[in-house]
Amino acid sequence: MQEKDVINTAGSNKYWKCSTTHTRTQTRDRVYRCEECNRHFNQLGHLQTHTRTHTGERPYRCEECGRKFSTLSNLKTHIRHHTGEKPYHCKECNRFFSNRNVLNAHIRTHTGEKPYQCEKCTKCFRQLTHLKDHMRIHTGEKPYSCKTCNTPFRYLNVLKVHMRTHTGEKPYSCKYCSKIFNQSSHLKAHIRTHTGEKPYNCKACTAQFTTLSNMKRHLRIHKHLKVYSKS
Questions:
Q1: Contacts of residue 229, Cβ cutoff 8 Å, sequence gap at least 6
Q2: Nearest of 49, 45, 14 to residue 5 by alpha carbon
Q3: Which of 4, 41, 143, 157 has the maximal Cβ count within 10 Å?
Q4: Which of 55, 83, 111 corresponds to the end of one domain?
Q5: In this structure, are 73 and 122 located in the same domain?
Q6: What is the spatial distance between Cα 5 and Cα 153, in angstroms, rounded to a whole number?
Q7: Is 33 within the bounds of a domain?
Q8: pLDDT in the model for residue 223
Q9: What is the mean pLDDT of each run of 10 residues along the chain (231 residues)?
Q10: What is the secondary structure of 104-119 as a DSSP string?
Q11: What is the CA angle 226-227-231, rounded to 5?
C-alpha cells in the first residue's frame, strides 16, 4: 500500500514529499502538515484554521460587539447570543440551545454518559473542557494570573471572582432587600434568609441549615461529643 503524500504549507511555498517512486496521481490522498506542531490534516482549509491556534489570528469580527474569532463557525455561534436564536433542541426536556456542542453536553445529563476520563484518577466528565480544568489539579498548572497582585489561579471563573476584590464590583443583588454581593453563591445563601430554605440536613440529628459551612460547623459538635463519650 502506498503511503500518503505530505503537503507542507510554509508561507507561500508548497512542496510535496512522496515516500514512493510511483508517479503521483490526482486520486492519491494528500495530507497537510502543520510545521509548528506536526499535526496532519486531510484538507488545506482545516490546516489553515488550525494554524490560527498558533498565530492567534482572528479574522472574523462581530459587527455587534467587536469580538473577533478564528473561525466563521465560531462567529456564527456567537452572533446567536445577540439574536437570541436557539436552533438546537433537546427532545428529552424541550430545552433549546444556540450551540450544538452545548446541546450534546446537555443531552449527557439525561443519558448519564461521561465520555471524558482522567488518566490520573479515572474520574469521568461530560465535557472535554471540564476534564481539561480537572487535569490542572494533577499538573498544578495555574494559567490565569491577576494583573493587579499576580496571584495565579487554575480557573478563569475563580480569577474573575478574585478581581472583584480589587475593583469592588458586586454584580449580584438581592430581590428582597438592597444587599449586593460579589459572588452568586453568596447571594444564593443570603436569599435563604428570606425564603427560610434549609437544604443542608445533619445526618446525625434533625438539624437543618441554610449553608454548607454552617452544617460543617454543627457536625463538629457531634464529633466532639463522640470523643467525650469515649473518654
A1: none
A2: 14
A3: 41
A4: 83
A5: no
A6: 44
A7: no
A8: 79
A9: 46 37 42 88 90 90 92 91 93 92 92 94 91 94 94 93 95 94 92 94 90 90 68 53
A10: HHHHHHHH----EE-T
A11: 115
